[in-house]
Amino acid sequence: MLSYISGKIKGKYVLSAGKSVRRNLSECTTYGLGGAAEIYYPENILQARAAYDRITARGHRPIILGNGSNVLASDAGTETPIICTKGMRGIYVSGTNEITCLAGTMVGELVRYCISQGKGGVEYLAGIPATIGGLACMNGGAGGKFISENIISVRLYVGKTVILDNKSCQFSYKHSTMRDINAFITDVTLKIYPSDSRLITEKVRARLAQRGNLPTGRSCGCVFKNPSGNYAARLIEGAGLKGLRLGGANVSTKHANFILNSGGRARDVRTLIAVVRAAVFQKYGVRLQEEVVYIGDFNDSDG
Ligand SMILES: Cc1cc2nc3c(=O)[nH]c(=O)nc-3n(C[C@H](O)[C@H](O)[C@H](O)COP(=O)(O)OP(=O)(O)OC[C@H]3O[C@@H](n4cnc5c(N)ncnc54)[C@H](O)[C@@H]3O)c2cc1C
Questions:
Q1: Who lines ligand 1 at CB under 6 A?
Q2: For 291, which of 144, 163, 223, 230 is 20 to 30 Å away at the CA?
């Protein structure tokens, strides 16, 4: 069995098993927003299970965080303990044309691994700033392809280990059964295909070039899911909201489904999301649904 670990685990994530730190969620999310929480940083599956058991023994169900690239955490933080998987990284060959990624493995690491090993099939993911666990939970993807197409199975920990095959994950657009049951994905087994490293590199480069048009700045990517047969960005732009600013948050001028943190608070972003949702409903009668996941209490009535 080949074990492949790429990149270095940053020192700040390395803690001994079962220990937690109190830290602002702003340090753990791409929005750069969010107040304090108790956070566990397991580095492997054993530590992850220990953290999960410790938290549940105290009567909590942990919030699982990957790279925090699809979440908006409240300014007040949360009292619910968090398990951040960022230290749980590694890729193992688990069968012919089959690899298993620990939940915290970053998409970039997976793509680099596939290039180095001449394995194709995941090039479309290049550039998504996500962990494989987060991506599996959200069934993320790009260019009309979703990670569910590559997933053979996911392993969960819910006080005991459970393996779900692809069908049992009940993947749909930006959704999986793991979201419904708030499960902890510890690792994900993916199918990949023999290919030519040069061809894979070309596809990855093309993908990254396409993504060069996306807004830079602190965001969670697309805030809303695309409604059936339409694009949320098109509706938001059509409602005249591109560039709209509210406090320290603004609708991107490049891509209207991106709401950027321009030096504000989570509350500003949350309020702007509600304003955009209401304006699109008023103009088109379409109720946009958030793709972004909220963490903590926002103390408002518009969520
Ligand atoms: C600049 C930018 C561009 C983006 N582009 C894309 C894109 O092209 N396509 C796309 O699909 N998304 C995109 N996103 C959104 C985001 O990267 C994806 O939704 C991704 O799936 C989130 O992964 P994460 O590891 O950051 O998860 P997080 O944001 O940390 O978590 C997201 C959800 O998954 C859950 N979760 C995370 N890890 C686990 C786990 N191990 N077990 C159980 N639950 C877990 C969390 O509880 C939460 O509900 C983009 C975001 C940004 C900031």
A1: 30, 63-71, 85, 103, 128-131, 133-135, 137-138, 140-142, 178, 183-185, 214, 219-221, 293
A2: 163
